[in-house]
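Reviewer 2 asked us to include a model.

Predict the structure of this chain.
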Amino acid sequence: MRRRRDNQMLLGLWLLAMMLGGPVASASASEYAPIDRPGPALTVSDPKLRASLSCSDDVATNPRPPVLMLPATTVTAAENYSWNWIPALRAQGFAVCTSDQVDDPQNMGDMQTRAEYLVYALRRVHELSGGKRISIIGHSQGGQIMRWPLRFWPDTRAMVGDVVGMAATNHGSDIVPAMCVPTCSPALWQQRSDSQWYKALNSGQESFAGIDYTEIYSRTDEFVQPNLDDTGSSSLHGGPGRISNIALQDICPADTSEHLRIGTTDPVAWAIGLDAITHDGPADEHRIDLAVCQQPRMPGVDPVTGEASFAAAAAVVMRELATAPKVAAEPVLRCYATATGCPTTASAFGARTLVTLALAATRIPAKGPVKVRVANRNDLQITGKLSGRTVNRRSVSRQRRIRLQARIFRVPAHATTTVKLKLPNALRRLLKRNAKLTLRLTASVKDPAGNTRTANKRVTAQLKNKRR
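Predicted model (structure tokens):
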């Protein structure tokens, strides 16, 4: 039996922060957005979205799928994972990314805003990794909120391979309503078992094809209640995704881990999560080595400083509960989540074109192609033609610039596509000789109303694997 020395006061404070608990009555799918309706434009500004994501420097080159870690209510990603899961995953050879809100890093505000940061994170990490499917791991609020982008931004589903929740509030908490008398933070209102958030989140289906879901829970988690079996709050059911709902006690019957431990130090939760992201399909409890039941802590946790890190996280909980702004009601469900949806979006460009060009890979083979990422931030689909030419005159006579053959493309609203431009022989020779090419890219783009705009970008591509 693994011994726990948890301070009950700290755990009680964690209860107030994490907001975990029982199931919510199912809502009629017809009240909420159709499963495959495209998601809305993101309202968080681009600079804040960019600042919210942090990745290890090997995310673009690591052959393994990247892991995106999402923290719980009241804590940042660093406070939740920098002293446990992140070093353990890095030691296993994974590239790791984290997402934190700029204006609400402790995740106490409206989770609908938090979800926009996750939409950005999924799109960006998928792009940075060269199109690999992401493994998302989250604790408490972080264990369920990744499902909001998957539900309401369908384009993100193809970007995700695994969803791993640790003590996730997938169906809200029966405990939270008493905490919101008369007020509490927006995120706590939304994690009530009867909230509009959960009715919308779990409408239609709880999983999606091509994604494996592993939900890890503890029967001794005093905050996620009821959670005695796979009919409890954390577990998922329904939909075409492959699902495993696993209690720590299914593997180690004497495990007494509660809510805070399951997402920070518990070795069984680590073993289940690692199994999930290293095998096809969700985790399988029968693959877990029972020797884990004798381990006092998960890898990555320092045996000397680990308890101090645990106590520091609990201190952050105390601070946030005392200082986080409180409101008198749950935030209103945003229009995109409803059956009627938002007012009709424009069919024409606005004042800004909102189409950008960038190299998808800064290093290219000697024979090409040049891969160009076209990003469309409009609320409408665009079509266009991408072309390129050398910046300087490069022909034998020095009288003309060399052009690349144009390619046609189409990009849905708030999406990105990669266009490949073939290198003519003259540019292949130039790339081999100079080890780089400087090009001017031009995209002529058209909106559904027939209006045409132009996006330009000067880029420099380096020769890949050039011998020195």
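Residues 355-463 form a domain with the Immunoglobulin-like fold (CATH 2.60.40.10). The first helix runs from residue 8 to 18. We have added this to the supplementary material.
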